[in-house]
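job 3f2a | input accepted
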Amino acid sequence: MKEPEKKSMIKKLYEDEHVVVISKPAGLMVHPDGRSKEKTVIDWVKRNYPEIKDVGEPFMFEQAGKVKKIPRPGIVHRLDKDTSGVLLICKTEEGFRKLKAQFKNHLVKKIYRALVWGHIKQDTGIIDAPIARSKSDFRARTVPNPHEEDSRGVEREAITRYKVLERLYLKDTNEKIPVTYVELLPLTGRTHQLRVHCKAMRHPIIDDDLYGPEGKPELVGRTALHAFRLTFVTPKFGTKIIECPLPLDFTKGLAKLAKV
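job 3f2a | predicted structure (260 res):
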């Protein structure tokens, strides 16, 4: 699969004295992971908001038996590297504290758009399935199978609502390959939750290198998942609903599809 185009500029979608909301391009990590030297959203934050260097909490990880810290100024939630869309950054400690509490208490409403393989039968539904670390791949998470020892560590509650937007077919192929354009609303915030739940539903997200099937044609060129809307309460200006338009790679993928 080709590398996502990560040269796209980070764009501001909303800003006040406590928070800034940006459009994160696909292919860009939110913060360093301790292994890669790639540029991240944090580099953009440090360059544009040096005054918030002490806001938030560091990323903690273990390396060579030692616990290390990586600063994450203003970061109160994250998106996977290949997921595009709306990302909130806190500019003050007050903003960080209040938004962190909203995320912890599931008061922030997040809506994603995705393209998945196959036609989802029900127009709406709920995926209520716990998530744990995969035993076979240290990078991955899984919905544990009660008949197999395929997970490790603690199983954590994970709930996702979904709504079918369109059932489509991939054009210009020898066979009609079904695709569903779907809206996903995570009610919990587990790592890789939407990607794991879509796979568990047997409708994996298109172009997902970690959870998708092999042998499928490429459509978007990266995980076809976009954080479309974020609803939260600012410390000073009340409820905000911020939408992030679909990026070009996603709209090009949609253009390759035909209606049922």
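job 3f2a | The CA atoms of residues 14 and 21 lie 5 Å apart.
job 3f2a | closed
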